[in-house]
Amino acid sequence: MTTETFSEEIARAELYGLLARLWLAPPDAALLAQFRLAVTEAPEPGSFLEAPWQSLVAQMRAATPASAQDEFAALFQGVGKPEVFPYASFFLAGFVNEKPLARLREDLAALGLTRDAAQFETEDHVSYVLEVMRYLIAGEGVAQGNLAQQRDFFRAHVQPWIAPLCEAVEAQPAAQLWRAIAAMTLAFVDVETQAFDLIDT
């Protein structure tokens, strides 16, 4: 693996990790402060990710811990029934804790991964599957550069339902910061989809 390729893989892993963090919980003051120093240009000017990245940076700079908490609660923690269920089972089967979760757990077990008992969310939460992708790219103990393994997990557990999730968020009037997060997620998944498709050609 060349230095340039290694750098690109680290950048992919970091973006998966950032998106996983943003879907899991509202950003705290420390994370918001980091975005006030974040570069607004994509690594390649004019690239597909530049505009959604700029929008995300702008929304993170405009947010406060309180406004982020309020928006997160309005979208994902509604009294009774949340506005958006960020779980694969909901989008693939219509209900939470369904067969997609069981299939995911089987694949995670094959990878030697288990859910942290302290983690409240089930494994098919969007944050969890994005974090698994980060791990498969750059985690300790995994076969570095195993694109086939990354592709298989991505196609089975990320690609099939991310677009409907992001569209559900974007349709919510309360979504401002998470509209930008959703747009960035969708754009990144599109880039990853195209990249993995090239493996098969």
Automatic annotation (TrEMBL):
This is Molecular chaperone. Keywords: Chaperone. InterPro entries: DMSO/NO3_reduct_chaperone, TorD-like_sf, TorD/DmsD_chaperones. Pfam families: Nitrate_red_del (PF02613).
